[in-house]
Structure formats: C-alpha cells, structure tokens
Amino acid sequence: MIDRLIKGILTGSSFIASVTLLFMMIIIVGEIIARVLFSHSFQVVHELSAYLLVAIIFVGAAFSFQSGSFVRIEILREKYPHKIKKIIEMIFMAILLIYLAVLTYFISILTINSYTLGSSSTSVMRTPLYLPQSLMMFGMLLFFVYVLLRFFKLIIHPGDPNERREE
C-alpha cells in the first residue's frame, strides 16, 4: 500500500511538472516568435514563466529526491554497515520531515495571508500572489507526504538504505 501511494505521488508530481515545463516552453517559444516575426511582445511571458518554473521546482521535488538529484553526503554512509546506514537514513529522514513540516507550514501561512490581504504582483498581469504560492504549497505538501511515506517504509520494511528507486 505504501509503495502504491509513493508511486502515485511520484507519477502525479512528475506528470504535473512535465506538463508545466511543456506549457512554459510553448509560451516562451511563442514570445520569441512574436518578437522576431511581428515585433510584438506579450509583456507577461517573463512573469508567467517564472511562476511556472517555481511550480516545476516545488511540484517536482519528490521526484528529484527519489531519483537521487538532491545533495547527499555519501562518503559518511559508505563506511558503515547496513544497520548503521539504516539508522543514519532514519535520522536524516526525521530531520527532513521536521524541516519540510516547518517549511510547508510557513508557505501555507504566506499563501493564506496573500489571499486574505488580496496581494498581487506589481507587473502588468497583476497576478494574485496566492495563485503561484498555492503551487508552492501544493508541491511542498506532496514532498512532505512522500518523505513521510518513505520514512514509514524505512521503519516498517527493512531494506537497503542506499536504494533510491521504488519498485
């Protein structure tokens, strides 16, 4: 059950990040074509692509973690036997969970405050800031749940702590 939830989070988040990246590429190419061929700028592509990049980063965090793209200090873990590696991994995951819980909490507070106060960007788009912040909050929540599930799996199912890929 845990493996299916983990796989669902990874599949969903990587799909959302991929579609977002595709959309970002389309609007940037559209802006380039409009500038070169028609000497016209849409004026909003820079801001919109920045919001989409933030969405890609936050929503894709779980997939990046799973694929080993995050920085880790492997040299410390390589020297120890399997049981010590598992303990180190559990400590790391516990610290990461605390960090993600705090970060998710404060991003949620930021999003709620932006919505309540009606904050918007100062650009031409006047984007309500709670919209891109909601994507950050969603991505952090996905990442938190993913790490929580990995932590439970580490506790319940003994396995190789070096294992990054999910079956």
UniProtKB/TrEMBL annotation:
Topology relative to the membrane: Multi-pass membrane protein
A molecular function GO annotation: transmembrane transporter activity
Tripartite ATP-independent periplasmic transporters DctQ component domain segment(s): 24-155
Keywords for this protein: Cell inner membrane, Cell membrane, Membrane, Transmembrane, Transmembrane helix, Transport
Keyword Cell inner membrane belongs to the record: yes
Domain of life of the organism encoding this protein: Bacteria
Signal peptide: none
InterPro entries to which the protein is assigned, alphabetical: DctQ, TRAP_DctQ
Pfam family, one: DctQ
A GO cellular component annotation in the UniProt record: plasma membrane
TM helices/strands, residue ranges: 12-38, 50-71, 91-115, 135-156
Localization annotation: Cell inner membrane
One biological process term in Gene Ontology: C4-dicarboxylate transport
Family: Belongs to the TRAP transporter small permease family.
Protein name in the entry: TRAP transporter small permease
